[in-house]
Design goal:
This protein is α+β, with helices and mostly antiparallel strands. It is about 25% helix and about 20% strand. The strands form six sheets. The protein has a nine-stranded mixed β-sheet with strand order 4-5-3-10-11-9-7-6-8. Strands 12, 13, 14, 15, 16, 17, 25, 26 and 29 form a nine-stranded mixed β-sheet that branches. Strands 1-2-19-24-18 form a five-stranded mixed β-sheet, with helices on one face. The structure holds guanosine-5'-triphosphate, sulfopyruvate (SPV) and manganese (II) ion. Sulfopyruvate binds near residues 22, 197, 198, 240 and 265.
């Protein structure tokens, strides 16, 4: 970390330009059999590694070899930080402890913001004997997730230039979900190195959740209160850089409605004794995308990052303030800028001032819209689940699934434009089932089956499932929907549906709002049919594409029910 702000009480880190995002190609699951990691991970005969769209596999022997080649001596000359931490609110039966070792001060400081840190969160040997009969699974002294991280650059004592050590050509992020272990080498950035986050709270936790009958998902959690004071909670799964943090912190642009934040990235959920789905946020900070964040788009985020925040790869003003594309603040003429690459920068320069995946890391306690129940050990009751991605054409603003099974199908069928949060290039449409493609902790087909199973369990009253798309574009390429605070209009319809108070029309793909049911007052020039395209050839193409995707990437691991849902959709389209 390079600088401290006088005014903001924040820190700024500029990374090595080769270490700016998650590296999906170097992220692996370590399991005895390849099919335990991903449906179609097929190594070459005798091979020890296999790559596939839904996950990469490495054999336990190969991991041992890879670690032996990287770890001995790799921390030499550095300070090793030992970080005991808890994912989830203290006292919650859903919370789980972990221990991370790291040789990066940036990672230690960021983990201190993103997780609850304290030695008392680790199970002790004395507590293991006294609580071995308790229902909490943090009952054995051995029962915590082990996380080992190194930036992979021994230090010889000299001042380092550049000051972001990393080893990009040998980066490896390996998860052994069975042994509850994560090993990360070579990167200091975000999900690659803050191992409580995607590594533990998604990949390893998903495997724990399968074994124990709950769900660990890439989801925001919000409270939504209507003008009559009725409150509901929603969970939303959107792929990376598709609007989770913005929705979680939204200020409703619809009078009388209030949005409160429980979490912006990860939800751990289980059905309680009454059959209601309850969710906790395992994290206690936000690691959010900076570019595009402004007083106009996300005033709550702007308030949240006013202090005690670590910024990564944003621009720096000569007055010691931060800067990025879309910050919405004009600069006084005498203020100059330095880009995330450390070079002098001015508006209009061809390269952006902040990296597109520049991030802020801020404590949840800074957030002015934090929900009063955000640390409730029981979790908040979830009334609706929302799936959504960046779909420039064809996919309507919102539609509702006919059933839990149809909803799981919608989750399996999610696609989104590639983002800057990982190493992908350009605007290609990527399949991203459940928004979990880079984060599955075991075979994705089994993960879908697990969703079907928990929803079908006796006594479960699964929430309704919806699909949203804030990112429809018109012929000129502009967004059709104003988005951000106006997304409250969509949440209002969703909650009214849950309450049985809003009308809907059945289409082959699901239930869309009947005309007038979605509040469009105050939005000039928006017509219902622009927001709710229903083009049969588009959906027929989508079905063909989905069939090919299932065949190629799930193969025999696709749950039969999901294929039955695709066939039912094809049937409805034929009758349209
Ligand atoms: P990760 O933290 O990578 O998982 O991303 P995220 O899902 O939290 O996405 P985030 O809220 O950070 O938004 C990503 C980008 O989408 C930002 O540039 C936002 O400005 C933009 N965005 C978010 N919501 C909307 C919306 O409703 N409409 C439009 N047009 N853009 C949005
Ligand atoms: C994402 O890519 O979904 C993120 C950023 O939230 S990282 O923590 O780097 O995974
Ligand atoms: Mn986010």
């Amino acid at each position: 970390m390079q600088r401290v702000f006088s005014r903001l009480r924040g820190w700024l880190a500029w990374t090595d330009p080769r270490d700016v995002a998650r590296v999906e190609g170097r992220t692996v699951l370590v399991t005895p059999r390849p099919e335990d990691a991903a449906p179609q991970a097929s190594p070459a005969p005798g091979g020890a590694v296999a790559h596939s769209l839904l996950g990469n596999w490495m054999s336990p022997d190969e991991l041992r070899r890879a670690m032996d080649a990287r770890f001995p001596g790799c921390m030499e000359g550095r300070t090793m930080y030992v970080i005991p931490f808890l994912m989830g609110p203290p006292g919650s039966p859903l919370s789980r402890p972990g221990l991370q070792l790291t040789d990066s001060a940036y990672v230690a400081a960021s983990m201190r913001i993103m997780t609850r840190v304290g030695a008392h969160f680790l199970p002790s040997s004395s507590s293991s004997s006294s609580s071995s009969s308790s229902s909490s699974s943090a009952s054995s002294a051995d029962d915590f997730v082990r996380c080992l991280h190194s930036v992979g650059r021994p230090r010889d004592g000299a001042v380092e230039v550049p000051s972001w050590p990393c080893d990009p050509s040998r980066t490896l992020i390996a998860h052994d979900p069975r042994r509850r272990r994560i090993v990360s080498y070579g990167s200091g950035y975000g999900g690659n190195s803050l191992l409580g986050k995607k590594g533990f709270a998604l990949r390893v936790a998903a495997a724990m959740a399968r074994d124990e009958g709950w769900l660990a998902e890439h989801m925001l959690i919000v409270g939504f209160e209507d003008p009559r004071g009725r409150k509901r909670y929603l969970a939303g799964a959107f792929p990376s850089a598709c609007g989770k943090t913005n929705l979680a912190m939204m200020r409703a642009a619809l009078p009388g409605y209030h949005v409160t934040c429980v979490g912006d990235d990860i939800a751990w959920m289980r059905f309680d004794h009454q059959g209601r789905l309850r969710a906790i946020n395992p994290e206690c900070g936000f690691f959010g995308v900076a570019p595009g964040t402004s007083e106009a788009t996300n005033p709550v985020a702007m308030a949240t990052i006013r202090r005690d925040t670590i910024f990564t790869n944003v621009g720096l003003t000569s007055t010691g303030d931060v800067y990025w594309e879309g910050i919405g603040q004009s600069l006084p003429p005498d203020v100059t800028l330095t880009s995330w690459r450390g070079q002098s920068w001015k508006p209009g320069d061809p390269e952006p001032c902040a990296h597109p995946n520049a991030r802020f890391c801020a404590p949840a306690s800074n957030c002015p819209s934090l929900d009063p129940a955000w640390e409730d050990p029981e979790g908040v009751p979830i009334d609706a689940i929302i799936f959504g991605g960046r779909r420039p054409e064809g996919v309507p603003l919102v539609f509702e699934a006919f059933s839990w099974e149809h909803g799981v199908f919608l989750g399996s069928a999610m696609r989104s434009e590639a983002t800057a949060a990982a190493e992908h290039k350009g605007r290609q449409l990527l399949h991203d089932p459940l928004a979990m493609r880079p984060f599955f902790g075991y075979n994705a087909g089994q993960h879908l089956q697990h969703w079907l199973d928990v929803g079908a369990r006796a006594g479960a009253r699964p929430p309704r499932i919806f699909h949203v798309n804030w990112f429809l574009r018109d012929q000129s390429g502009a967004f059709v929907w104003p988005g951000f605070g106006h997304n409250a209009r969509v949440l209002a319809w969703i909650c009214a549906r849950v309450g049985g108070e809003a009308g809907a029309v059945a289409t082959p793909i699901g239930l869309i709002p009947e005309e007038g049911a979605l509040e469009l007052r105050g939005l000039r020039g928006l017509r219902h049919r622009d927001l709710f395209p229903m083009d049969r050839p588009f959906w027929e193409r989508e079905c063909r594409e989905l069939r090919a995707f299932y065949g190629e990437h799930f193969g025999k691991h696709l749950p039969r029910e999901v294929m039955a849902q695709l066939e039912a959709l094809e049937g409805r389209l034929r009758k349209m």
